[in-house]
Amino acid sequence: MKTTAAILVELGRPLEIAQIDIPPLKPGQALVEVAYSSVCHTQVLECRGYRGEDRYLPHCLGHEGSGIVREVGEGVTRTQPGDRVILSWIKGPGMDVPGSVYRWGERSVNAGAITTFATHSVISENRLTVIPAGISMCDAAFIGCAVATGAGAVFNAAQSRPGQSLAVFGIGGVGLCAVAAAAIAGNVPVIAVDVVPNKLNSAAKAGATHCVNAGAGDPVAEIARICAGGVDFAIEATGRPDVMLQALSSVRNQGGAAVIVGNARYGESVALDPRQLNLGKRLLGTWGGDSRPERDYPRYCSLIASGRLSLEPMLSPAYRLQDINRALDDLEAARVVRPTIDMSLE
């Protein structure tokens, strides 16, 4: 059996669309017919070569989506053929199978435990979560990264409480989900920071009470004007070291915390003024919003199904798989918030 996949052959070059042979399933793997794949900034970093040397070329990409299980390998117990599933890079329960090797003519094509830029994909059992009733396949495609990381940064990493203040730096898919989660958590004010006006408009729809255009002035000073003494929490979702420092500077002394979500380019670093920490501020890291699929994904699905967590502000017209390079370009240029690949589009 073959699948149509977008393959990274060379760093800095467009992905190639090709028909490749699907390998036999190993124990702990499932064959999934992908319905939708979301496109994350991580894939932009990978494709452009911003994550350093890539020892696995050529390889398949994509780490967030939704699909239908068509076949399962030996030992798989958490899903069965016919299940609608969330595809996520974040490990959940079940067997952990590192990856597969597809065939492209005489060439080998590597793939990790999850890849979603393909019509059919071999995926490790522990990257699959059954979708509850009431959730569309399109909405489910965002749960495995954007929602898990953004909402998880608020609910799990920051553990913010009603009445506490929160600022989000970077209003992409992850940032929008963090804004929405802060509104759900009862945070006041919820401040969105970005340099793109359209993204700030989306943040207002997602629940931001204040929007700060960082291109028009000092965002730290503006946050201090809105919230005297600084905010309780700042979520950084840009991957830029200078913005990470702004996030830390924007939180209050003696207890404020900045949660760093964004992925910086390979080789970049943060030159931290230790006095920021001497003031009693905390700098927190997070791995996928500290989300655990078995615990958190049902909660995220319930929030979406109830209408409390709307993904509409990040949606744009879907792309065909054949247009994956345009989707990556549009994401990098901030023309869209979070591209969606609809595998049914011809």
Brief overview, please?
The protein has helices spanning 41-48, 137-140, 143-158, 173-184, 197-206, 219-226, 241-250, 275-278, 293-305, 324-332; strands at residues 2-8, 16-21, 29-38, 59-60, 64-72, 84-88, 100-104, 107-111, 120-124, 128-130, 166-169, 190-194, 210-213, 233-236, 257-260, 282-285, 340-342.
Keywords:
346 residues, alpha/beta, Quinone Oxidoreductase, Chain A, domain 1, Rossmann fold, 2 domains, 6-stranded antiparallel beta sheet, 6-stranded parallel beta sheet, globular
Question: Could you explain the architecture of this structure?
Answer:
Helix content is 27%, strand content 25%. With 346 residues, it is of the alpha/beta class. It has two domains: 2-142 and 311-342, Alpha-Beta Complex (Quinone Oxidoreductase, Chain A, domain 1), CATH 3.90.180; 147-290, NAD(P)-binding Rossmann-like Domain (Rossmann fold), CATH 3.40.50.720. Strands 3, 5, 6, 9, 10 and 17 form a six-stranded antiparallel β-sheet that branches. The protein has a six-stranded parallel β-sheet with strand order 13-12-11-14-15-16, with helices on both faces. A hairpin with a 2-residue loop joins strand 7 and strand 8. Helix 3 (143-158) crosses helix 4, helix 3 crosses helix 9 (293-305) and helix 6 (219-226) runs parallel beside helix 7 (241-250). It is globular and about 60 Å long.
